[in-house]
Amino acid sequence: MKISQSYLLTLTLALGDEYCLKQWWEIVGSQFAKPISSYFLYRLVRLVLLTSTGYVLFTHISLSNWVVFSIALVVLGSIEVPLRLIINRIRKATGVYLYQLNYLVPLSIILLCGTVDYVLRYDVNYGLIFLFVFLAHPSNYLIRWALNRDESDFKNQAKSEQANISKDLAMAYREFEYAEAKDKLLSIAKRLEHCYPKATASLLEGLEETLT
Hints:
Elements: H1 5-28, H2 35-57, E1 58-59, H3 63-78, H4 80-94, H5 104-113, E2 119-120, H6 126-136, H7 138-146, H8 151-173, H9 178-192, H10 197-205, H11 207-211
């Protein structure tokens, strides 16, 4: 199936603006005292960028139609807020982390971009431009955003997990009852099994010696 140049340009504008601007705004937006005001301004800036760049790069296009399309893209991007609330509530209630729901946002944007087909003002290869713009950062950012993780999150999570495990180990070794101490150590081993198989094997191997 051949992808039209118009679709590629629309995708470039939609995804490029959404995720490149999001990365930059994370730095700028942190200076605002109210997160809600920062987010609203971020979406407003995105709307202005979409409206202006699209109207310049496409021809034979109604400004009102493009503004409506730009508003629809901004609204779709804003769905990330209720989605994260839903994901967090499900996680708190069940312990299940449905991060996959985050992909509904970029998927919706991609589908919406396929509903328009405007005439290009400039005759260039927008496939290469899309790859350059998308692979420059949005692809990586999109994946990390959808997983609701960044490098600092991973580091903070690792430190927090390590501290919790150390605390639980100390409490297990303080137990005077053999059965209770063993149960706690086995519980810790189960938590470590997926991410730290070697540490789990070492813990289980010396379990009986440690308890006796």
